[in-house]
Specification:
Shape: globular
Protein name: diphosphomevalonate decarboxylase
Family: Belongs to the diphosphomevalonate decarboxylase family.
Low-confidence stretches: none
Order of helices and strands: EEEEEEHEHHEEEHHHHEEHEE
Strand content: 25-35%
Distance between the termini: 15 Å
Structural class: alpha+beta
EC number: 4.1.1.33
GO molecular function: ATP binding; diphosphomevalonate decarboxylase activity
Number of strands: 14
Oligomer: single chain
Mean pLDDT: 96
Bound molecules: ligand DP6
InterPro entries: GHMP_kinase_C_sf, Mev_decarb, Mev_diP_decarb, MVD-like_N, Mvd1_C, Ribosomal_Su5_D2-typ_SF, Ribsml_uS5_D2-typ_fold_subgr
């Protein structure tokens, strides 16, 4: 189509996590979060509004999207249509640049790319702040993927003031994130459901709000000081406290599998043997290891033996959203 727009957005890994919504419809979180956008994994999405379509036509990686995914994309596009005054349906073509079946496809890169492509295809020319606000409506973590490098999602109180801002960093160019993929089980529980269950049933949720806020303050100080040790320690502890909310929910659940625990042990033994590295884990069994360029090779070798080369991917800080 003549009005097709394509945008690329990269995934991000939160070092201080978002886990719980104050407003589920607008996606306003209880706490701020801070992430690093990664260079290796990204989504390219093309959007064209087309008067010949009667419903949105969504394809992901060359396949028609499921009814559930199409409905979620359509609800998002309804926001764009409402704001732009467009009534046409859209053709959406999305490609995830992640190793197949590794479970690394992310709603963050998906909705950041969709926000950028759909808003421009609808004739809007949004600021990065407004793009971040829009991406947030699709998936909370997507608001951070508008920016490259470190980004902080300021929770805000309503749609106008809940968005991410870039966090400048100096002296962290040698930071690396090693993505470790484990055996893929059935996806037990979405992050959306998981955080709802944590908020409504974990007696530790109020403590999470307190500690996550403190973690964010400490992480920003560590980033400003380019203090890798502090960055790693804060990130690891914050991740485990998030996962404690799943174990303390009713019914309890966990995103970890056996390999997740094996990796955690190995990171700790590497550290005890003088190889400085830390882990963080999102709503799935895969692990991301934070390290610096000089130790990357040693860590890759260690995990390749355990998981196989194909399950060990070295990533670096990546760029913000861009139009292709
Ligand atoms: C563990 O952004 O996927 O990765 O807003 O419901 O779409 P929704 O959730 P989502 O949750 C991300 C959770 C996390 C932590 C993080 O990225 O901050």
């Amino acid at each position: 189509s003549n009005n097709a727009v394509t945008a690329r957005a990269h995934t991000n890994i939160a070092l201080v996590k978002y886990w719980g919504k104050k407003d589920e419809n607008l996606i306003i979180p209880y706490t701020g979060s801070l992430s690093l956008t990664l260079d290796y994994f990204y989504t390219d999405t093309q959007v064209a509004f087309d008067a010949n379509l009667t419903t949105d036509d969504v394809q992901i990686d060359g396949q028609p999207a499921s009814a559930k995914t199409t409905a979620r994309v359509s609800r998002f596009l309804d926001i764009v249509r409402q704001r732009s005054g467009i009534t046409k349906s859209a053709a959406v073509r999305s490609t995830n640049h992640v190793p197949t079946a590794a479970g690394l496809a992310s709603s963050a890169s998906a909705f950041a790319a969709l926000a950028a492509a759909s808003s421009r295809a609808a004739g809007m020319n949004l600021s990065l702040t407004d793009l971040s606000r829009l991406a947030r409506r699709g998936s909370g973590s997507a608001c951070r993927s508008i920016f490259g490098g470190f980004a902080e999602w300021q929770p805000g109180t309503d749609d106008t003031n809940s968005y991410a801002i870039p966090i400048k960093s100096h002296g962290l160019a040698d930071l690396r994130v090693i993505a470790l993929t484990t055996v893929k089980g059935p996806k037990a529980i979405s992050s959306r459901q998981g955080m709802r269950l944590s908020v409504t049933t974990s007696p530790y949720y109020p403590a999470w709000i307190q500690t996550a806020q403190a973690d964010l303050v400490a992480l920003k100080a560590a980033l400003a000081a380019a203090d890798f040790t502090a960055i790693g320690k804060i990130s690891e502890l914050n991740a485990m406290r998030m996962h404690a909310l799943t174990l303390s929910a009713d019914p309890d659940f966990t995103y970890f599998n056996g390999q997740t625990l094996t990796i955690i042990d190995l990171v700790k033994s590497l550290r005890h043997s003088g190889v400085e590295c830390y882990y963080t884990i999102d709503a799935g069994p895969n692990v991301k290891v934070l390290c610096q360029s000089e130790t990357t090779e040693k860590i890759v070798t260690t995990f390749s033996k355990v998981l196989g080369d194909e399950n060990v991917i070295v990533t670096k800080p990546g760029p913000g959203v861009q139009y292709l």
